[in-house]
């Protein structure tokens, strides 16, 4: 059986990429487990609710599809599920008769606030309490650089 490469044996770019993938997967899984246990709320639902809670106005469904890490069909299924649970509503767009806008209900906003506290609590020991301000700034810098290249990276 081949031996696992150590950090010193890996090219820096490979190690950095592996670290990003590992961190994203590990932290997302941790948050997902906490949200499902406490609120029966998968992290994909939370992500859609985050975008809805961040907007004072209803959000066009197409914007949700372009803003989240989910595909448009996944967003549609999540909104269906949120609507079934009474957490979100769809309304015809006042600006475009062909589209709908999505917003959280009062129950959805309440659940989002509770779920966001659960998310922060789940991340604290392995992220916010572990990393200092310089670490957070460095991650923010990396994220902004990668996000700025989003269109090019997808193409």
Give a short summary of the structure.
By secondary structure, the protein is mainly alpha-helical. It is 63% helix and 8% strand. Strands 1-3-2 form a three-stranded antiparallel beta sheet.
Strand fraction equals 5-15%
Compute the average pLDDT. Answer: 91
Number of extended strands: 3
Q: What is the alpha-carbon Rg in Å?
A: 18 Å
Structural shape: globular
Distance between the termini: 37 Å
**Helical percent range?**
55-70%
What about the largest sheet? 3 strands, antiparallel
Number of helices: 7
Name the strands of the widest sheet in spatial order.
1-3-2
Unreliable segments of 5+ consecutive residues: none
Query: What is the N-to-C order of secondary-structure elements (H for helix, E for strand)?
Result: HHEHHEEHHH
Helix and strand content put the structural class at: mainly alpha
Main features:
single chain, 8% strand, three-stranded antiparallel sheet
Structure characterization notes:
With 155 residues, this protein is mostly helical. It is 63% helix and 8% strand. The protein has seven helices and three strands; from the N terminus they run H-H-E-H-H-E-E-H-H-H. The chain has helices spanning 12-39, 43-53, 61-67, 72-84, 106-123, 133-148, 150-154; strands spanning 59-60, 88-92, 100-104. A three-stranded antiparallel beta sheet has the order 1-3-2. A hairpin with a 7-residue loop joins strand 2 and strand 3. Helix 1 (12-39) crosses helix 5, helix 2 (43-53) packs across helix 5 (106-123) and helix 3 (61-67) packs across helix 4 (72-84). The mean pLDDT is 91.
């Amino acid at each position: 059986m081949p031996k696992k490469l150590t950090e010193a044996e890996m090219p820096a770019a490979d190690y950095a990429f592996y670290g990003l993938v590992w961190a994203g997967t590990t932290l997302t899984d941790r948050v997902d487990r906490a949200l499902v246990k406490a609120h029966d709320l998968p992290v994909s639902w939370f992500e859609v609710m985050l975008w809805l809670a961040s907007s004072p106005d209803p959000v066009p469904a197409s914007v949700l599809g372009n803003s989240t890490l989910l595909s448009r069909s996944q967003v549609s299924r999540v909104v269906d599920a949120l609507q079934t649970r009474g957490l979100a509503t769809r309304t015809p767009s006042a600006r475009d008769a062909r589209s709908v806008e999505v917003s959280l209900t009062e129950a959805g906003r309440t659940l989002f606030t509770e779920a966001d506290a659960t998310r922060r609590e789940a991340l604290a020991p392995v992220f916010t309490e572990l990393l200092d301000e310089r670490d957070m700034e460095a991650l923010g810098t990396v994220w902004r650089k990668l996000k700025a290249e989003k269109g090019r990276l997808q193409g």
